[in-house]
Amino acid sequence: MTVAVKGTDSPSAVGQTGKMNAFDQSEKSTPMYSNQVNLVGLARTELEDVLARFGTPQKQLRMRTAQIWQWIYYWGVGDFAAMTNLANDYRAHLKEHFVVAIPEVLSRQISNDGTRKYLIKVGSGHEVETVYIPDENRGTLCISSQVGCTLSCSFCHTGTQPMVRNLTVAEIVGQVLLARNDLDDWPERGHAKKEERRISNIVLMGMGEPLFNFENVRDAMRIVMDSGGISISRRRITLSTAGVVPQIARTAQEIGCMLAVSFHATTNELRDELVPINRRWNLAALLAALREYPRLSNSERITFEYVMLAGINDSDEEARRLVQLISGIPAKVNLIPFNEWPRSPYQRSSDDRIRSFADIIHKAGYAAPIRTPRGDDILAACGQLKSATQRLGVLRKAEAGQSAPLLQ
Ligand code: SAH
Prior knowledge:
Elements: E1 8-9, E2 37-38, H1 44-53, H2 61-75, H3 88-97, E3 98-99, E4 104-110, E5 116-122, E6 126-134, E7 139-142, E8 146-147, E9 165-166, H4 169-182, E10 201-204, H5 214-225, E11 237-241, H6 248-255, E12 258-262, H7 268-274, H8 283-297, E13 302-308, H9 316-326, E14 331-337, H10 351-363, H11 387-399
Parallel strand pairs: 2-3, 7-10, 10-11, 11-12, 12-13, 13-14
Antiparallel strand pairs: 1-4, 4-5, 5-6, 6-7, 8-9
Helix pairs in contact: 1-2, 4-5, 6-8, 9-10
């Protein structure tokens, strides 16, 4: 596969637009992992607590919390000196004890179709990827929830890489902040038109299984949804799970966002192979949890993601079985043409096959859009994340004169 990169910026060029509203991402001035308390990722109540602990007078607490929250999440200002509605000595006090720090962008690639992929550095030397996908009437940010993944889905490149750890709340929210920096997506004072935002939607479809990092994902999404800050509504956030059944009802009750499920097969036998978590929670258990979701979350449809693998799961018979399985669930079926990666064991179904499959679902009364692969020239499409990064790591080691096993 050819890699056509329109522009790869050096890390220092990202997030330093010269405007006061850009967070400083350079390690020197705002280290994300320093001894100072990072305010990013704290819930409002935690922010209040931490301000109190460091001496903000009790009767000012509410007000100061609201002001600082608004600077960080509404205006995108991370520099305490620029928080002009706070007294000078209070700004100096804040600077002494706190930082507003987000992960550093190591590289940014821009696809021919405008998709942007960020390789970001998180704590203890790990890296994850975040993808921005612009569309005509919306812009979607695809964020990661874990470094690596434990699921080992046989068709997913991320799944072939080891799971390292869960991302923290700050690292999850930080992905939204750094993308808004890069896209210059903060309101100018007095012109805060929400409908003009470049990031209008969020999908938790990057690296990792969000429901294996439930609390951090929930707390991060609560910050993102807060109406005094980023204010993206729960209906514009979609969490995708491979089927961590016990956490599905909690997602409805504690986040209330839209749900997508990586379905991919209509029999337990095949799903056990493609999505091995099915051995723990099978189709019957998964479908029972999904049936409850719209009522519990007061949301509309569930998105069933279905990767189209030639000769594996793409027959008309399987389309009919899929329709039977989901009957009674308000649903739409997203058909994802398989995105190949080096030495992947499957092939993408033909366009005709995908259309015929879509037709059956459509005739049964469900929307069945075929997802256009986005950013596949920069390996930013579904299931491709991290691969380029791993190769970069191999290259770096090779450059340093160490022998490194080739990963692909
Ligand atoms: N762990 C969660 C979040 C990842 S979402 C989940 O499984 O839902 C990533 C989506 O891309 C999932 O639907 C996944 O099944 C799909 N995917 C993974 N590899 C793919 C590939 N090579 N081609 C197309 N889609 C893929």
